[in-house]
Each structure stands twice: as C-alpha cells, then as structure tokens.
Write a structure and sequence with these properties.
alpha+beta, six-stranded antiparallel sheet, globular, 3 helices, 122 residues
Length: 122
C-alpha cells in the first residue's frame, strides 16, 4: 500500500494524494490499514484513520512504553530510503493498544507510512 501511495503522490501531486489518503473507505484505507504522511519535522500531512491528527506536530508523541515513535521514525528516514519501525498504537478497528509494524518510504520532504497490527496480520 505504501508503494502504491508513493506512486500516487508522484502521479497526482500531494494535494490530490493527501485528500485521497484521508478518505475513509477510499483506495488507501482497508479495515485497520491506512496511510500516514509526515513532514520531516513531525507534522502529520495526511492520516487515513484520524483526520484530527492532520497538521499536528507529533514529534514528541510517545507510545504506552514511552517510545517517541514519530521522532524515531524521522531519524530512521534521515538514514534510510525505506524501513520498518515497530511501536504500539491504538487499533482503529477494536480500539485496543496493539504492537504495530510500520513500513515507511522517504520522499524528498516527507515520509509515507503504512502499518500492520501484529495481532491481526492480514
């Protein structure tokens, strides 16, 4: 899904792509799978599960274990073109905190990510 999202950004531009990523039931959301786009400063530019996160700087956000996962993700993106990152997050399907693995690809100014909850691997 992340590779499809990156291709969509290159083909359609960020404005159209982010709007599509934010559309629940659109082509970039499927049950608990969705796309998130971060600026390299930690600001959420698109979020397929929670529109309230858009335009918020989440650089200091921590998971239940105290892991600053957005900050870590940005640090990983500064060193890697693509990577997997594990943390804990609320599953939008069942509202439970679960282990999650997020796959991310870096673009020139942003990080495009999509994750899978490890309890409910599809």
């Amino acid at each position: 899904m992340v590779k499809k999202a990156v291709k969509f950004i290159w083909q359609q531009g960020t404005e159209k792509a982010y709007k599509e990523f934010n559309t629940k039931g659109g082509q970039f959301t499927d049950r608990d799978l969705y796309i998130v786009v971060y600026g390299m400063n930690g600001v959420v530019l698109a979020h397929g599960a929670n529109n309230k996160m858009i335009n918020k700087n989440l650089i200091e956000l921590t998971d239940v274990d105290g892991k600053t996962f957005v900050k870590e993700r940005i640090e990983l993106a500064q060193r890697n073109d693509s990577f997997w990152h594990e943390y804990k997050f609320i599953n939008p399907e069942n509202k439970k905190i679960e282990p999650k693995a997020m796959y991310c690809e870096r673009l020139p100014e942003t990080i495009v990510c999509g994750g899978v909850y490890l309890q409910t691997v599809h």
